[in-house]
Amino acid sequence: MRVLFTVFAAKTHLYNLVPMAWALRSAGHQVCIASQPDLMDAVCGSGLTGLPVGDELRMGGGSRGPTAQTFQGVSGDMVWADPDDMGWEKALGAFTVGCSVQYEYFAGGAMLDELVEFARDWQPDLVIWDALTFAGAIAARACGAAHARMLFGLDYVSRTYQRYRELLLRQPPERRDDPVSDWLRGRLDRYGLDFEEPDALELMTGQWSIDPTPPGMQFPLGLRYVPVRQVPYNGPASVPDWIHERRTRPRVALSLGMSGRDLMGGDTISVERLLAGLADFDIELVATLSAVQLASVSALPDHVRAVEFVPLNELLPTCAAVIHHGGFGTVVNVLTHGVPNLTVPAPWWDEADLGRHIAERGAGLVVAPEALGPDTLRTGLARLLNEPSFAEGAARVRDELLAVPSPHDLVPTIEALTAEHRTRR
């Protein structure tokens, strides 16, 4: 069968898709990944076929789109601690801005037009779309393909959308503004496609969802989820010689991820404060930091090795502990290798909740950025290095992950679901 993946131009979201794409390709299916032109080098670097659609997105480096603060505001409305506390005005605002700003910017306009045109020509059997790239669901509808979301962490969109629908139905008829249905109807209408109210749920949440979220972290939403073990993919890279050199001190990794520095205009944690807090530890600290991130640091301590990039999948097996920002890609690498870890959550999506889940499982600790200081950092790292319970907890979580079906194992299920949902025969 033919499988079309769609994702907006962000490496972290692409890397989330690559293992599943390769599993399908290795099983003999044709696979193509569509995104804006500025992601094509990364797509082709994965060994897969890329399709450039629309204009460059230029996240983090251009002026055509919303600011990082706008995205943080939209995400903050989705990441609601208790959805029962979310009132109608908040829910309405979240999706009004989400549809008109975030979703349209990621995958609207020329990208959507060209994606639909390609899908109608290539006739994929299945479209797998990144969970913020709703153009994939619309393209699937336009060509009669089955379609599934690929989640990239906790399913806040579905949880908030379900709450939004509940609140919408409670409003008097004259107040039932529905920007989600309006947005979807407008895009379908561009391609001569009809829209009925039940369509909204499917187009927002997929006919089913491929869910790489670690066991025990899912929301009980009653949707059709197909669990998959996320295999870490860090992009093309060579392994530096020093990774496997004999070590005389415990190695600790410090990673703040790619999204903050590449897409969101900078980190929300002071790199200088982090390094200063670890200055007197008898460790080898490997800090994956760029020159821009290190610009505020006057001098690196002797025990710090700063590298702009090193594949975490190769580095983490050599580490006794990890300090990280809680991004889903980093968390997958950390949990896969069973490394005790300290999360200092970034504010972009599910970082705080993932850190809390890891701490609750006894695999690590979480410290809010506003509570981070030299004492809390040193105390937390000392516990991770000296208390065996954290390594034991991390090993338990790793074993649970390894019991989840791999992308290879999931291929027959995807084939069956595609045959069930595809409308074009």
Structure write-up:
With 425 residues, the protein is α/β, with parallel strands linked by helices. The chain folds into 2 domains: 2-229 and 405-421, Glycogen Phosphorylase B (Rossmann fold); 241-402, Rossmann fold, CATH 3.40.50.2000. The chain is 45% helix and 13% strand. The chain has helices at residues 11-26, 40-45, 68-78, 88-107, 109-122, 135-143, 156-170, 179-190, 199-205, 259-262, 271-277, 291-294, 312-315, 328-336, 351-360, 374-386, 388-402, 407-421, and strands at residues 2-6, 30-35, 49-52, 126-130, 146-150, 208-211, 225-227, 251-255, 284-288, 304-307, 321-324, 341-343, 364-366. Strand 11, helix 14 (328-336) and strand 12 form a beta-alpha-beta unit. Helix 11 (271-277) crosses helix 16 (374-386). Keywords: Antibiotic biosynthesis, Glycosyltransferase, Transferase.
Throw out a few tags for this protein.
single chain; 425 residues; alpha/beta; Rossmann fold; 2 domains; 7-stranded parallel β-sheet; 18 helices; 13 strands; 45% helix; transferase; UDP_glucos_trans; Glycosyltransferase_28; glycosyltransferase
